Amino acid sequence: MNFKKVLVQSLLWRGLYFFTLLLVNIFLSRYLQAAGTGWVYYLSNIFSFSLIVVSVCLEAGVTYFASNQKIDPNKLAWFTVAWTFVVTLFVVAAVFAYLFFEPDGTGIPKQEYYYFGICYLAGLFLTNCGAALFYAQNNFFLPNFLLTVLNIFLIIIIPKGQIVTTLGGATGTLHIYFFVFLLQGLSIMIAYAVKNKIFASISLPSAEEMKSLFRYSAMALMANVVFFLVYRIDYLFVNASPVCTAADLGNYIQVSKLGQMLLIIPQIISSVIFPRTASGVGRQELNTSLMIIARLFSQLYIFILLVIIFGGGWLFTWMFGQTFNKMQLPFIILIPGIFCLSVLNLLSAYFSGKGKVNVNVNGAILALVVVVIGDYLFVPKYGIVAAAAVSTLGYTVNLGYPLYVFYKDYAVNLFDFFRWRKGDYYWLISLFEKKTDL
């Protein structure tokens, strides 16, 4: 299957999944309001960082070695199941430490955090690795179909037409919300096991294969830890800022979540680029497509910027409720940074597929220095507006380094990433001209 056909399949099915994820975000936000939503996503943010560490970013190694067939994918599937127990044990210790330092002011019994953590981390780990195994087979339909169905179930379950005044009153809904993560992971791994008949024999990677898997994943871990801090450390500064309220944190995290939603298409494309680059198929076509996509992104974000400038204030309160009335200005400031992240997603997947994860690490370290210094100096005084501005500056720096390496290695004109061309529209139209194998 050529690059364009794989790309269309990914856009269709992953796009459908992310659309339902956006609906989950909207209904959950309207139900919990800004302060409650901020707490849920802040806790999820802590869990997500923990997962990066305990999973050792094995999903990156799974994608890489399953795509180039250097390790039997079925061995990787069994290893994923085994490592899930390590993740679960880690959750118990991590949640215990978190509760020791974090005061309880939510009205939710502390023991609930163990349930939330196990469901979220174990479920997300199984989802990430299971989806990686399917993507290595160019199968974007089945995992995203399962994720979409379970998101729809969650959308139906979230109460409509009512709000909660304390998180303690929403415990039942939160139980279901976090349990769906575990259900998604289990469903994807079971689907892979049945489709690929891995029950016929139980086997794990050899010692040498394991060494290669962990070596690659460890480098990806370094990159993802730094990336995560670049993207999310501003939450900590906003949460600790004397000028920011709980509602400010909720507004800012919602801005960040919407920014992540704008990265859906780049992430979908990256999920094709990574295994494609690792397999070594169609390298020249891939290089050309990267620059075309970057140019199309620049035009898309100019349009989004204009929409938010003229209608963002009304749009955000209409979607999420009246407590989300401080989103417009931070979001406007953040949009150029989101554009940089969109192009960076493509380049990061490209260099990861070539085994040059160090390029991603070096760029992220430079960005992290900028973000930490900027947030430390300005967020305590200027709040969420400063956090958005510093993030945009950091994301720009993050893009600059891999863009320079790409230019140096392949002798391309950097302006080709940004100079609009009429032929780009023909390339876009050609994606949908013929029937594809969906």
Question: How would you describe this structure to a colleague?
Answer:
By secondary structure, this protein is mainly alpha-helical. The chain has one domain (3-430). Helices cover 81% and strands 0% of the residues. The chain contains 13 helices and no strands. Helix 1 crosses helix 7 (207-240), helix 2 (58-67) packs parallel to helix 4 (112-136) and helix 11 (328-353) packs across helix 12 (357-410). The longest helix is centred in the last third of the chain and has 54 residues, at 357-410. The radius of gyration is 21 Å and the shape is globular. The chain starts with a helix and ends in an 8-residue tail after the last helix. The mean pLDDT is 84.
Quick structural overview:
This protein is an all-alpha fold and 438 residues long. 81% of the residues lie in helices and 0% in strands.
Q: What is the gyration radius calculated from CA atoms?
A: 21 Å
Overall geometry comes to globular
Q: What's the β-strand tally? A: 0
* Number of alpha- plus pi-helical segments: 13
Strands, helices and their partners?
Layout: H1 3-55, H2 58-67, H3 73-101, H4 112-136, H5 141-157, H6 171-196, H7 207-240, H8 246-262, H9 264-279, H10 283-320, H11 328-353, H12 357-410, H13 423-430
Describe this protein with a few key phrases.
single chain, 438 residues, mainly alpha, 81% helix, 0% strand, globular
